[in-house]
Design a protein that fits this description.
Elements (H helix, E strand, L loop, with lengths): L13 E4 L6 E8 L6 H18 L6 E8 L4 H14 L4 E4 L3 H14 L3 E3 L16 E3 L9 H9 L4 E7 L2 H16 L3 E8 L8 H9 L4 E4 L3 H13 L8 E4 L8 H4 L7 E4 L8 H14 L5 H18 L5 H8 L3 E4 L2 E6 L4 E3 L2 E9 L2 E10 L17
Parallel strand pairs: 2-3, 2-4, 4-5, 5-6, 7-8, 7-9, 9-10, 10-11
Antiparallel strand pairs: 1-3, 11-15, 12-13, 13-14, 15-16
Helix pairs in contact: 1-10, 2-3, 4-5, 10-11
Length: about 400
């Protein structure tokens, strides 16, 4: 494969993967490279560039990537999106970690008619009431990755659950997805609390309530630093033996599970990707990503990888120009590390399997034991009315 990677330091750098024929596709990569979500942005970028390296020659085009730092600040991100669209004149954008950032740039993306491949932000509205034919999500929606666990936990004989999550949109949507299916299956939510987001250091009072609630299990959503603190405190309270901990897979993400240490062992969660999924595409991805970065890929890395692959698949159709690319992205499907992926034309949200896994001790540290693969389901429209894209 003939390719070259050109990178320079600064807020805007370029990465090019020249092909032997075809036109140049200019991509704006809009991610947090500083601030609280910098690690997520770096994983997404690493996955994205790996996909361009592995599959770029198939597109018959070259890819130039202009990299911008959102700093996880919606006003900053909006300014960077304007630059990418108006000054850099990108053909397509990819990235977006924060749902707040996605909300801030949505109207500009839609109004300018620039296709955006969302590589993380999970707010349900982005492919629901605020959907756009120019926005295609290759990551997940908050409800999507939690709904399957409601039925699965009920099938395991669990009838009473206490839930906890941080008090912001993602926390409520994650828990809402689980509660919807668990109660529909006949389960009972015996208690529910939403903790102050990024302000809760002591989970003790909430854990005491969960213990006294009569629950048979606890289901939670926490991520990042809050996940590390929560898992450690749950273990130190000695609750796991009598009150098993379940949750959204972000609770024990490979990106930071080692920081949780032995406290994470035995925790059962569900997510659309873990590096121990057994299929040929994932084996190749894990090997290549580990060789490139020295670390096992997280769900964020696969978001970037599949976003890059989706772009290449769209370009392979011969799509030229923003409207053509937007239409082609809506029709993408392929077998990737997560399994079979497709885009739901009704919402532009990804359709993907969800995996239930237990965090266990392995030969080289904590790893993920897949317990079940749950069927891929499309999100409900949730108010989405998708207008056609025309040139």
């Amino acid at each position: 494969m003939k390719r070259a990677i050109l990178a320079a330091l600064g807020l805007a750098t370029s990465l090019a993967v020249p092909a032997t024929a075809g036109e140049n596709v200019k991509v704006g990569l809009l991610l947090p490279f500083s601030g609280v979500y910098a690690a997520l942005g770096n994983d997404i970028e690493a996955g994205f560039s790996l996909a361009l390296e592995q599959f770029g020659d198939e597109a018959g085009a070259s890819f130039e990537v202009v990299r911008e730092d959102t700093e996880v600040k919606p006003p900053v991100a909006l300014g960077k999106a304007k630059k990418l669209i108006l000054q850099d004149k990108v053909d397509v954008m990819a990235g977006i970690v924060s749902s707040g950032v996605l909300g801030a740039v949505r109207d500009m993306v839609h109004g300018a008619g620039v296709p955006l491949i969302v590589a993380n932000a999970g707010n349900d509205e982005a492919t629901g009431a605020n959907c756009s034919p120019f926005i295609t999500r290759m990551s997940f929606s908050n409800g999507q990755v939690n709904r399957p666990m409601g039925q699965w936990m009920h099938d395991q004989g669990i009838r009473k659950v206490y839930t906890l999550a941080p008090d912001y949109a993602a926390g409520r949507q994650m828990i809402g997805g689980f509660v919807e299916t668990f109660t529909a299956a006949g389960g009972e939510i015996v208690g529910q609390e939403f903790t102050p987001f990024q302000k809760t250091q002591d989970f003790g009072p909430y854990l005491a309530q969960a213990k006294a609630s009569g629950a048979e299990a606890v289901f939670v959503f926490y991520a990042g630093g809050e996940a590390i603190s929560f898992v450690k405190q749950y273990d130190s309270f000695g609750l796991k033996a009598d009150l098993p901990l379940y949750g959204s897979g972000f609770l024990t993400s490979p990106l930071y599970v080692n920081a949780e240490g032995p406290a994470a062992e035995g925790v059962i969660t569900a997510l659309h990707y873990v590096p121990t999924i057994e299929n040929a595409a994932n084996a190749a991805f894990v090997e290549a990503f580990t060789a490139r970065t020295g670390r096992v890929p997280s769900e964020y890395a696969v978001h970037g990888y599949d976003a890059g692959r989706a772009l290449i698949e769209a370009v392979k159709t011969g799509a030229g120009g923003r409207a053509d690319l937007a239409n082609a992205l809506r029709q993408v499907s392929f077998d990737g590390p997560r399994g079979k992926l497709a885009i739901d034309a009704a919402t532009n949200n990804v359709i993907q399997p969800v995996y239930v896994y237990e965090t266990v001790a392995g030969a080289e540290g904590l790893t993920q034991k897949v317990l079940a693969e749950l069927p891929a389901e499309a999100d409900p429209a949730n108010g989405c009315e998708m207008d056609p894209v025309s040139n």
